[in-house]
Amino acid sequence: MMKLKKNIPLIDQHDRYGFWGGKFGGSFIPETLKKPVEDLTKEFQKLRKNKKFLTKRDFYFKNYVGSPTSFIKLDNLSNHLGGGQIWAKVVSEANGGAHKIYNATVHALICKAMGKKFIVGDTGAGYAGKMLSMAAKKFGLKCKIFMGAKDIKRQKPNCDAMRKNGAEIIPVYSGSQTLVDAVSECMRYWVSNCDNTHMCVGSTVGPNIFVKICGWSTAQISRELKSQIKKEFKKIPKKLKLINCVGGGSSAYGFWSEFINYDKKQIELIGVEAGGPKKSKLHAAPLSRNAKIGILHGAASYVCQNNEGQIHETESISAGLDYPGVSPIHCFLKDTKRAKYTYATDEEALDAFKMVTKFEKLNPSLEPCHAFAEAIKIAPKLSKDTILVVNSCGDAKKDRDILRQRLGKY
Amino acid sequence: MNNSLINQSFIISKRENRPALLTYTVAGDSTKKKSLEILKSISKYADICELGFPHNTPIADGGQIQTSAYRAIKNGIKINDVFSIVSKFKKLRKNKPVILMGYYNMIYQYNENKFITKCKKSKVDGLIVVDLPYPENKIFASKCKKNKISFIQLISPTTSKIRQKKIINDSHDMIYYISMLSTTGGKLKVSPKKIIQEYQNIKNQNKSKNVVIGFGITQKTIKLLKKADGLVVGSAICKEITRSIKKRQNVVTNVTNVVKRLKNKIK
Questions:
Q1: Which residues of chain A lie closer than 8 angstroms to B185, CB-CB?
Q2: Which 3-state string (H, E, C) describes A176-211?
Q3: Interface residue A118 vs chain B (CB under 8 A)
Q4: Which of A91, A158, A208, B113 is least enclosed by beta carbons within 10 angstroms?
Q5: What is the complex's ipTM, to 2 decimals?
Q6: Which CATH class is domain B5-266?
Q7: Which CATH architecture has domain A65-97+219-407?
């Protein structure tokens, strides 16, 4: 049976071929990428033990990212719904407006440490791209961002930001013209330019090492949360639920990593995937809608695909969750039953947006609105001493056009 | 596997003092029927036929092969159709080696063992799995060998010397050297002289292994690489298929002419 180990970070609980639980993850990469991936793996192993590097990381997390982000009680929303208390970790306060800045900053630092001057990355909602362009600018790196043509249209504010930061956006017209194609194209670019270019994968997906680097970076969120919770409640509450949206799964892993060792009866981890439009058969919810294991972008995970292994098109109002695969570490958390995964539809996410913004001074993007939808659904049934914490991991500024179109206002 | 069809075709081309010509087309491009016709026709000039089983998320392929793959998928190609194309082809040209090439997820979904059995049944001679590198491919490769299917290992300019040695040691009938850091169909950005030098280094490690060069080879560059045991042309052929469809010309004739010209350049 698949089992989690205690006291070893989840990102390190893989075998020598890079598989979690013997079957998720790995590095299914073309021969050309073997060497650069190996080099990156060695470098990361070295850097994460290097005190100077850690000091540097902490310095930039504090002074550039703006850690810690706040932890607040949503009193009005909780009172309105009754039941459990809803709290939010407002990660969208981080520089740039989302959790993607952690991974981007670390990748830029690694790129510098490896002496490479060019950095490339993929993006869906545009946050990973925007943050990478910011970090690249900050650390003097040349930056290219691969983005699906459909996403370029629907996430314009983030594209404007990327260009302003001096990054070049490469539109991807193949396939569904969304994140899945952007990641493929970015990997292709890296295959061709791996001698002088560093690649940043925007989430806890891709070949093993990219899952690890991203998870290691976003884990900062739960380090902060743990001390904030202890400060607020004097100890870890008896009934705690940590609710997070899951696309690739970088913010969810970052939100949960410090709490995985706890008993699930005390701390429940709930991941909310993108269920897509209510009436559509398409979705981006491989975990909660029982997709089969497949190989996508260099890793084995649950993947939305057909019987033949062709990757399915996905559909979600939220570009950041619109991805057919998911992190191997979430597959592992699912199969070990440590985390529970469900989904919210486009409509539920929009309703959640309406409700949260009506009651609170908070402006969560459509991605965390999926998590809020779940909190809103379950809170009324829960006891008053149950603490629900939602990771409000992105700001809705980027969704302005969609919200205007769907809700008539922004 | 000394008497394998793949080995034999290298022996023949060596005897004729030229490299073997390997073509790559995508099964089902532009239709199931057309791709078989293309295969039949170009096999007059090609020594070994590589046939791609198309995947819709090909991370190592450039634009030309992507276009071919998407077209084939759109036209409804399924894995079983790929096998039936090979079967039909092999009935007509039983001595022409066929190598299937694709991405691991397709094999994984079909089931490794079932896939190999099916390969054997349809008389597939070799397999290239782009995203199943060494050493992760060891078990699969040995399963292939047991069934007399040659698993083809790839070596790239980034492959270290130590790794090269191990790969060559564990390789079967043929080794595929990737000419440069690129996806398929990129412009040749390394001088042919340098590519041949690298090729020679690999060759020197074990002279008995057949080493072919692929990626970026076109009618313009093929002649300069003719010292190799074999040369693979893929994107240039896929490009011709796309062009012919666009111009509403006969795809089979046009593609055959391209392959014929390629062959003439290395004779």
A1: none
A2: CCCHHHHHHHHHHHHHHHCCCEEEECCCCCCCHHHH
A3: no
A4: B113
A5: 0.96
A6: alpha beta
A7: 3-Layer(aba) Sandwich (3.40)
